[in-house]
Amino acid sequence: MGKKHIAVAMGGYSSEFEISINSGKIVCDALDKEHYYVYPIHILEEGWYYVSENGSKHVVNRADFSFNNGTNTIKPDAVFNTIHGTPGEDGYLQAYWELLGIPHTSTDYYSAGLSFNKRDCLSVLKNFGVRAANSFYINDDSEINIEEIVKRTGLPCFVKPNRSGSSFGISKVNNMNEISPAIDKAFTEDSEIIIETALKGTEVSVGVYNNGDEIIALPVTEIVSENDFFDYEAKYLGKSQEITPARISEKETQMVQKEAIRIYKLLKMNGVTRSEFIIEKGQPFFLETNTNPGLSAESIIPKQVREAGMTLTDFFDILIKNVLK
């Protein structure tokens, strides 16, 4: 098979676009240049561009996702999707590429949309017996009854936007008078809010991917935040320790990997996902799943890949081969 043209999609329209650009750069650097021609594609609100090595921008034709590389018009053989948030993690771009018949490395549009909406995802998984925290939902036109909320979730609790990533807009609330400001903060990111009981236990993160028909869990990472929880500062500004492999028993490791694989199958995922759990009293409680997890140098998935004995080049090769027919 000749060299394939791979577009690496990065950026997006959410607060996470800079994080995504970092993920995209890592992927571009790591892809095997003997097998692939690699094109960084910036998908931003101001426009979609192929950005060449000398920094020149070439507009992407949205009718067929083609672009000029300076000499020829390129229609990619596949897209490596590294966009966190909208429109690359919530199903919009997946549906667009699927309509154009361009294979992409992320999960399909429906699984992406479902998992991006935390409360819809929890509603589906709870019916399959997946354990999760007690939760309370609010829309921006809802009457807010703080007593009702606390009756359901108890204190402390987390107030978070339903559809956002990288911990933007999240607060941990310890007493009743902190709830209203926390709700206002979450509404700056989304018109829907989810309030959940703060579970007490060990927070872990598990990558899962497919290699053809085989579904494999990566080593587990333990998250120890210096802040009150794993917020933006903890994630990106070094205010947390991420310990791979996690300091949990072999039994707990296998249990949480098995649950992560089960969720991957229940949600009919493809590509690499990362699910977060809190292990409380020996049981994994599901928090959320990310279908386009961070791939930048300090991100969790690259650490798990290395712990599993692979290079990022090997790993990304598996993800692309999965989708190239």
- Structural class by secondary-structure content: alpha+beta
Our measurement of the CA-to-CA distance between the termini, rounded to an integer number of angstroms, reads 11 Å
How many H/I helices? 10
Order of helices and strands: EHEEEEEEHHHEHEEHEEEHEHEEHH
Share of helical residues: 25-40%
Give the full name of the CATH homologous superfamily of the largest domain.
Answer: ATP-grasp fold, B domain
Number of structural domains? 3
**How many β-strand runs?**
16
Low-confidence stretches: none
- Overall average pLDDT: 92
- For the largest sheet, list the strands in their spatial order: 4-3-2-1-7
Tell the overall outline.
Answer: globular
Biggest sheet, open or closed, and with what strands and sense?
Answer: 5 strands, mixed
Task: Name the beta content range.
Answer: 25-35%
CATH architecture classification of the largest domain: 2-Layer Sandwich
Gyration radius, rounded: 20 Å
So what's the CATH class of the largest domain? Alpha Beta
CATH topology of the largest domain: D-amino Acid Aminotransferase, Chain A, domain 1
